[in-house]
Amino acid sequence: MTEQAQAGDWVQIHRIVLTPEQRPANLPDETRAVPLEMRTKGWLITKAATLGDEVTIRTAIGREMTGRLIAVNPAYGHDFGQAVPELLAAGDDLVALMRDAKES
Q: Which pairing describes strands 4-6 and 10-18: parallel, antiparallel, or unpaired?
């Protein structure tokens, strides 16, 4: 992964939006115990930066945001998580239930 970025590069930043102390009391304890974090992608406005530097970016909708540089040319990585064994047969089970209901 590239550690240097120049103005105009596609980058990702990270920022703590709310610390645990700033989070509202009506949240579950597990949620309130951790900071609210933001990760945003956009084009680097700052002239040059290294991973970990505080930078400003312009997002795809034109918003300027500041945060700590965490990636240069970040990938679009996402998935639907691990397979849940209990759900693998759910479709077949549903079809069988519907077939039985139709026959009776």
A: unpaired
Q: In this structure, is residue 27 part of a structural domain?
A: yes
Mean per-residue pLDDT, 16-22: 98
The closest of 83, 45, 86 to 66, measured between CA atoms, is 45
Residue type at 13? I
Residue 1: pLDDT over 90: no
Task: Tell me how far apart the alpha carbons of residues 49 and 15 are, in angstroms, rounded to a whole number.
Answer: 16
pTM of the predicted model as reported, rounded to 2 decimal places:
0.73
Structural domain total, the chain: 1
**What confidence score (pLDDT) does residue 26 get?**
97
For residue 13, give its domain range. 1-75
Task: Write the burial class of residue 37 (CB in 10 Å: 0-12 exposed, 13-18 middle, 19+ buried).
Answer: exposed
Residue with tokens 């759900």: 87
Q: Check if the beta carbon of residue 45 is closer than 8 Å to that of residue 57.
A: yes
